[in-house]
Amino acid sequence: MSSTQSSADSTSSSITNDPAYQGYVDPDWPNPGGEGDARIIIYGYVPSIAVCSLGIVLFFGAFVFHTWRLKRHRIWYFSTVLVATFMEILGYIFRTLSSRKDPYAVSYFVAQYFLIVVAPVLLSAAIYTIVSALIDAYGREYAPLSPKLVLWGFVACDIIATIIQITGAGLVGSAYSNLKDPNVPNKILLAGLAFQVFTFALFLLVLMIVLWKGRSSPVKVSKAFLTSTVIATLAIYLRTVFRLAETAQGLEASISTHEVYFGCLEFAPIVIGVYLLAIWYPGEYLQHKNSTKHSAEKRSGVSV
Q1: What is the pLDDT of residues 45-77, one digit of tens each?
Q2: Which residues of 84-93 are buried (b: 16+ CB within 10 A; e: fewer)?
Q3: CB 66 within 8 A of CB 85
Q4: pTM for the full model?
Q5: Which of 161, 158, 189, 160 is nearest to 173 (CA)?
Q6: Which domains does the chain have, with CATH numbers?
Q7: Is residue 37 a contact partner of residue 106, using CB atoms and an 8 Å limit?
Q8: Alpha carbons 173 and 273: distance in angstroms, whole number
């Protein structure tokens, strides 16, 4: 065994024996002990190459699907889904690097966390645009908020929550790398997630009100489209609640140290969401509703 590897093993042993900084060290993967390596594997496990590969393949497929849809329907406000799927691809590439190259590297952990956390925010923004367009189609009287307030108000909330989360995640990685207490930055991360869960719950309430009141609107929208939008929205919300529960339980607790939770409650819901948004694409169900409504208003002399 080389002196570098012996030193890395000694470092790993010292941190895992310190009750203040316990964490996961793979017995079959000695810590390289490089400048950018944490003393432990921050994930709590070595990421599965199967999950990483499946993520790259499925999100690449979704990227191609949404690109075709966007080119056909030219709903440019929905292009945030393209950015989201591309970010997911990059996120799983960085997880692959962790899985195959160096699971202790802080840079890989922070990069994949940033990409996989921000991508669903862009999906949320796409859903906000759907609800805004839905309000335009039904009529302002069928919604508790204006279309612009629904879109930009909730987008602003997501931006604030994401900035707090990324700051907290970066500080957690830095704390592990420098043998400092990670619990304080974890609370920053928790605050960002709690704020996001709260504001998204408010959005769900707005969505339910719009759907309920919209039943009496003369404009009718496909029930299959509305159902798929609701399921995609709930899938994204489930993923956000999972992240909150994971962070609230703690850095070394069961949720954060078992990848099965990540696979079922982070990876799977987002895959379901992006494919539902591609199959029941808003360009097929909302664009003509708005144009028909505006044409009718012009014919009747109502200003648009």
Answers
A1: 999 999 999 999 999 999 999 999 999 988 888
A2: bbbbbbbbbb
A3: yes
A4: 0.84
A5: 189
A6: 45-288 (1.20.1070)
A7: yes
A8: 29
